[in-house]
Automatic annotation (TrEMBL):
Residues 100-516 form the AMP-dependent synthetase/ligase domain. This is AMP-dependent synthetase/ligase domain-containing protein. Keywords: ATP-binding, Ligase, Nucleotide-binding, Phenylpropanoid metabolism, Signal. GO terms for molecular function: ATP binding; long-chain fatty acid-CoA ligase activity. Residues 1-15 form the signal peptide. InterPro entries: AMP-binding_CS (IPR020845), AMP-dep_synth/lig_dom (IPR000873), ANL_N_sf (IPR042099). It catalyses: a long-chain fatty acid + ATP + CoA = a long-chain fatty acyl-CoA + AMP + diphosphate.
């Protein structure tokens, strides 16, 4: 009996045995709070906001020391050994770096704590004072986290800066916070040297790598000391200095947002703020323990990753570092035949932003479609059966049928992320229902989709592992209370039926102090109520379901009124239209002087080229294909189809589009490090194209 026949008969027999019932679990419940009137919900299991999960621990420095002493012999931080690096030419004449990476090499918790203590002492011996600030300007790696914890042991506030930040924003961040010491990699050191004349307060630069040669090095070294990370560690080892530990209310981090609108703002976070989120999320991830393995590749300058890595510390788990460009066996920087980070590490826990999960889904779907035949039929059958099981139509979500499909169909897909992933955390942007279901089915793991902001230390709500619904972001986490307040201009009210709707306001110990050196903006969006609870006004619009779970439905800033009075929510429409197979990124544009919308579409090269091949369309390169009228017409038709299926109004679907062939990365300045679109920057960069679309 062939596998296809087994795949048909066995599930049919199993479904006759038992049905699966939906879980009607109550996850959040209404609560009385102070401040502006609205509809407030708290986590059902916690009557008051959680501050710390550990008695006697109120700072990240105390948590780190406690865990390192408890797990001192366990493996902790892992980095892959670089075997070779070479340039490889592509078909279009461009060259790309390809890496051959070896096994992970590990530090124990005990060794990591020793390095942190040495670095802290070295920083003091360098002459850095407690009331001066350090900036970490580098990609995610072992030295980043060691430096962070080293600063915490001296109660030094750390300014976090994305490695992809442009010169103007970089200067702004360093000068505004009057940073005196910058810790960076060799690539970031070159960026610093290029703007050395514009930095007013920098005295010391600590390079995580061997110090490279650079024309500006001698000139900069007259005003800076440039030292290697290893030398600072050695200096501290030879001249130990006692710890000067912070308290909960001390500012741990000034985290600069990725600047989706204008210059980035520095959000001031206390140790207590971050610890509240860490403590809360720990209670939500199922069976989290020191047996888990976490793959770290997102920017540590993003609160999602910084919180996640502190959660790893808290339970004594292992953490292996990677990068988005070496994540899988087919990632851009991985040499053919070499294993990606996920395959080599075999993580059990993974954090991701939706853009990365979308790429995994698209890659698998394209490969399945290209294979065709019985393999595609079996995949489609397996996917449909598992989807029915998860949606509660038939038994099989966790039973024998699931094991069968995993063995026959999904085993190879699971291997993309190392075969052992049991739980994923997603944040930073909305996750589409299609991608969520794909991960549930093909990777075989639940996704905890979180909602939060830098201003709330990534914490507000989080979906629980047994919640199989899509499109929602869960109940409030234990440290947060979430309130919906009326927004009359948008037509949303906390008294709406059947679900309360309104602007999302987050309260609790995770709500940060405000924006550095920006009292006006702080007073605009932060409030303290009569009971002393601090609230942050997010500008997002949500609604609460009957079980206490939140759904994000709109954003105040994204709403544009068209010529005839119709309101268009740009983000809502973009979230629907990105479901087209031809779309990598879509940016909707609406103008109050017109009655219709237009869009910029970064096209999916593989999907559009596959269509062109089937149509017999010839072209010199992808850029030429994107300019062809037939291609524009095909993509626009797809958007109309997807828009209608999503029940968008006619005026919400773009009438005209511009196809773009070049992908957008953080280096282009058009998306943030978390891959969110920078609407203002895009509008300026493509002003002529937008004007032509309206002409």
């Amino acid at each position: 009996m062939g596998p296809y026949l087994i795949g048909v008969i066995v599930p049919f027999v199993l479904t006759l045995l038992v049905r699966n019932s939906k879980n009607g679990k109550k996850r959040g419940e209404p609560t009385a709070v102070g401040g502006e009137p609205g509809y407030a919900v708290r986590n059902k299991l916690f009557t008051s906001p959680m501050e710390s999960a550990w008695q006697g621990i109120s700072t990240l420095a105390e948590l780190f020391e406690h865990s390192c002493k408890k797990h001192h012999k366990k493996r902790y931080l892992g980095t892959r050994r670089l075997i070779t690096s070479e340039m490889e030419a592509s078909g279009d004449g461009r060259s790309f770096e390809k890496l051959h990476l070896g096994e992970y090499e590990w530090l124990t918790y005990g060794k990591a704590f020793e390095m942190v203590c040495n670095f802290a002492s070295g920083l003091a011996n360098l002459g850095h004072k407690r009331d001066e600030r350090v900036a970490i300007f580098a990609d995610t790696r072992v030295e980043w986290f060691i430096a962070l914890q080293g600063c915490f042991r001296r109660n030094v506030t750390v300014v976090t800066i994305y490695a992809s930040l442009g010169q103007e924003a970089l200067c702004h961040s360093l000068n505004e916070t009057e940073v005196t010491t910058v810790i960076c990699g060799k690539g970031e050191l070159k960026k610093l040297l290029d703007i050395s004349g514009q930095l007013r307060t920098v005295k010391h630069v600590i390079c995580m790598d061997d110090i490279p040669s650079h024309p500006s090095l001698n000139q900069a070294s007259s005003s800076w000391t440039i030292t290697s990370f290893k030398d600072i560690e050695q200096l501290g080892k030879e001249n130990p200095v006692g710890a000067d530990l912070p308290v909960s209310a001390d500012t741990a981090v000034i985290m600069y947002t990725s600047g989706s609108t204008g210059l980035p703002k520095g959000v001031m976070m206390t140790h207590g703020n971050i610890l509240a989120t860490v403590s809360s999320v720990m209670t939500i991830i199922p069976r989290l323990s020191d047996k888990d393995v976490y793959l770290a590749y997102l920017p540590l300058a993003h609160i999602l990753e910084l919180a996640a890595e502190n959660i790893v510390v808290a339970v004594g788990a292992s953490l292996g570092y990677g990068s988005p460009l070496t994540l899988t066996d087919t990632s851009n920087k991985i040499k053919r035949g070499t294993k990606g980070d996920a395959s080599m590490l075999g993580p059990t826990i993974l954090a991701a932003v939706p853009a990365i999960l979308d790429r995994v889904r698209d890659g698998v779907c394209k490969k399945v479609d290209a294979t065709g035949g019985i393999s595609k039929k079996l995949f489609d059958l397996a996917y449909a059966r598992r989807l029915s099981a998860i949606n509660g139509s038939w038994f099989g979500a966790w039973g024998l049928e699931r094991l069968l499909w995993n063995f026959l169909v999904f085993r190879k897909i699971r291997a993309i992320l190392g075969s052992r992933v049991r739980f994923l955390l997603s944040g930073g942007a909305p996750l589409s229902g299609n991608t969520q279901r794909f991960i549930n089915i093909c990777i075989g793991a639940p996704i905890g989709q979180g909602y939060g902001l830098t201003e709330t230390c990534a914490g507000a709500t989080f979906t629980e592992y047994d919640d199989t619904s899509v499109g929602r972001v869960g109940p409030p986490i234990p440290c947060s209370v979430v309130k919906l307040i009326d927004w009359p201009e948008g037509g949303y009210s906390a008294n709406d039926s059947p679900m309360p709707r309104g602007e999302i306001v987050v309260g609790g110990p995770n709500v940060t102090l405000g924006y550095f050196n920006n009292d006006e903006k702080t007073k605009e969006v932060y409030k303290v109520d009569e009971k002393g609870m601090r609230w942050f006004y997010t500008g997002d619009i949500g609604r609460f379901h009957a079980d206490g779970c939140l759904e994000i439905i709109d954003r105040k800033k994204d709403i544009v009124k068209l010529q005839h009075g119709e309101y268009v929510s740009l983000g809502k429409v973009e979230a629907a239209l990105v479901g087209s197979a031809y779309v990598d990124i879509i940016v909707l544009h609406a103008d109050s002087f017109y009655s219709y919308c237009v869009a910029l579409v970064v096209a999916s090269q593989s999907a559009l080229e596959d269509w062109a091949q089937k149509q017999g369309i010839t072209y010199a390169d992808f850029s030429e294909l994107c300019q062809k009228e037939e291609a524009v017409k095909e993509v626009l038709g797809s958007l109309v189809k997807v828009g209608k299926a999503a029940r968008l109004e006619k005026f919400e679907i773009p009438t005209k589009i511009k196809l773009l062939s070049e992908p957008w990365t953080p280096d282009t300045g058009l998306v943030t490090a978390a891959l969110k679109i920078k609407r203002d920057a895009i509008r300026k960069a493509f002003s002529e194209d937008l004007a032509q679309l309206y002409s």
